[in-house]
Inverse folding.
């Protein structure tokens, strides 16, 4: 148990860090708290935002680190550049080399996904090319661990590209059209999405000589003076100290299941999409040795419905409000955002000076046409009695959900008027490239054909994004900006420079892989 590098966590960031460190000649051990490999990454669709990647270049699509940085700076919340610009530069410069490294050193292969930047209309934005998706891989690549990759709340038979290009738009037709392919994948244990990403990363790590231990929780960081020199962990049922000659990489994910931290930073959260092993271990251990924690109020707040996972109610990501004949209203029965906006999570999480939410609880209000068309949404909603309410009039519907009937009636009438006029003068629904990608010219459809329905628009985190602040080399910093020697952090365990307002679908997985790659390379080079 004598290693150069200890990596804590086996998601995208941890495995990317382990792979890069081992490639640099370090002896690496990965400690995973769960009995499953992959963490939140394995549960994801694994859409990955990689600007200026070699696949888009091969397709003749122009991009550059300079254009990427211009885009990120233009999208970011006011004031973030003061603390995050250094990390944005890392993302702009290192994302593309990371992707090529993964394809060179693992079985992973990526393909372009027809998906725009959320703010493609802004300077530096791109309508196509920055989103990539893993192609399928067989579980059998992992040998004895073939069945130890964490399962998801959704099928992992499809790639992210296949989901975006057709399966989610028409589930039945999409699945039937791929029937022979899906049968072959079942016979060969091939999977896509997050499971494929984890399989490829794990195989690459094993081929580089990394040791991976499951059911190996880390309890604390071991210090040598003011530097981190290892961890205390339980491995094989035995509590022991594991020295790390070059240091430790924390890649433990978010704190979605840490009751105290969630009550402080995300009061009233309805559901999480993260596994219950995401209890903020990295954040807590880093703070114990003097790290500054930042962006603890940031998360991937995402449209979602609910399902059951490991015996509990769990988030199922699902974009539900971009279609016509539905509006989103707050607790005052008023619209507060374009229903197709990529910043729905930001709007939902908006808070006043006192820290209290401005809009929660929020509701979807829709008519019979939406109910007939949105089969997935209705399928999940019908699993819980009373989740979807129905009434013959808007006023009666308002009474069922505790909203002012007159205000809801006025809100619906106002939206219907904009829909008939063809321009949403309140929130400009359907006018951006992102929204037109989903709705084309059908964003504005009236809510006027009964019966009318209402369903809670759940307040969901798919992964918190706060943690120890790091420098451009992923070294963990103290409040005075001094470096804690031997301690690195990557992924959503770190203070993410891409907060709740995402610059792209896939800007959770993409930065996780990139900062893991950066951390692994830097820790392998560390002089000790």
């Amino acid at each position: 148990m004598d290693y150069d590098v200890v990596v804590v966590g086996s998601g995208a960031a941890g495995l990317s860090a382990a792979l890069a460190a081992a490639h640099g000649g370090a002896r690496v051990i990965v400690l995973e708290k769960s009995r499953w490999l992959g963490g939140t990454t394995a549960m994801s669709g694994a859409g990955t935002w990689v600007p200026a990647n070699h696949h888009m270049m091969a397709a003749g699509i122009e991009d550059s680190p300079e254009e990427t940085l211009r885009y990120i700076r233009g999208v970011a919340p006011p004031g973030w550049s003061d603390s995050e610009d250094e990390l944005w530069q890392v993302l702009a410069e290192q994302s593309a080399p990371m992707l090529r490294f993964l394809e060179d050193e693992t079985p992973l292969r990526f393909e372009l996904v027809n998906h725009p930047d959320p703010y493609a209309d802004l300077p530096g934005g791109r309508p196509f090319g920055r989103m990539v998706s893993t192609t399928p891989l067989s579980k059998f690549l992992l040998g004895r661990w073939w069945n130890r990759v964490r399962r998801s709340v959704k099928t992992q038979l499809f790639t992210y590209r296949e989901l975006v290009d057709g399966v989610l738009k028409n589930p039945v037709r999409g699945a039937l059209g791929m029937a022979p392919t899906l049968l072959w994948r079942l016979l060969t244990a091939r999977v896509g999405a997050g499971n494929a990403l984890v399989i490829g990363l794990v195989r690459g790590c094993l081929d580089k000589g990394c040791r991976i231990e499951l059911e190996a929780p880390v309890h604390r960081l071991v210090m040598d003076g003011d530097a981190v020199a290892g961890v205390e962990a339980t491995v094989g049922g035995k509590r022991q100290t594991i020295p790390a000659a070059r240091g430790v990489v924390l890649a433990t994910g978010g704190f979605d299941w840490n009751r105290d931290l969630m009550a402080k930073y995300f009061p009233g959260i309805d559901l999480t999409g993260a596994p219950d092993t995401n209890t903020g271990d990295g954040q807590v251990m880093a703070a114990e040795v003097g790290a500054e924690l930042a962006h603890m109020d940031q998360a991937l707040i995402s449209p979602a419905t609910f399902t059951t996972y490991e015996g509990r109610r769990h988030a199922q990501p699902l974009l539900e409000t971009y279609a016509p004949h539905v509006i989103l209203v707050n607790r005052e029965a008023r619209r507060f955002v374009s229903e197709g906006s990529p910043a729905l999570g930001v709007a939902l999480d908006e808070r006043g000076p006192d820290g209290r939410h401005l809009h929660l609880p929020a509701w979807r209000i829709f008519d019979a046409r939406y109910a007939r068309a949105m089969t997935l949404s209705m399928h999940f909603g019908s699993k819980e009695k009373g989740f979807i309410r129905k009434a013959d009039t808007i006023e009666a519907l308002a009474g069922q959900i505790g909203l002012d009937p007159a205000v809801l009636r006025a809100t619906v009438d106002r939206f219907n008027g904009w829909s008939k006029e063809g321009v949403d003068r309140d929130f400009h629904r359907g006018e951006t490239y992102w929204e037109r990608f989903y709705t084309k010219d059908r964003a504005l459809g009236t809510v006027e054909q009964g019966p009318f329905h209402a369903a809670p628009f759940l307040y969901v985190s798919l992964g918190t994004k706060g943690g120890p602040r790091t420098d451009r080399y992923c070294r963990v910093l103290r409040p005075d900006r001094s470096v804690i020697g031997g301690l690195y952090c990557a992924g959503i365990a770190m203070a993410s420079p891409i907060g709740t307002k995402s610059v792209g679908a896939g800007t959770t997985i993409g930065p996780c892989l990139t900062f893991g790659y950066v951390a692994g390379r830097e820790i392998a080079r560390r002089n000790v």
User: Anything to note?
Assistant: The first helix runs from residue 12 to 23.
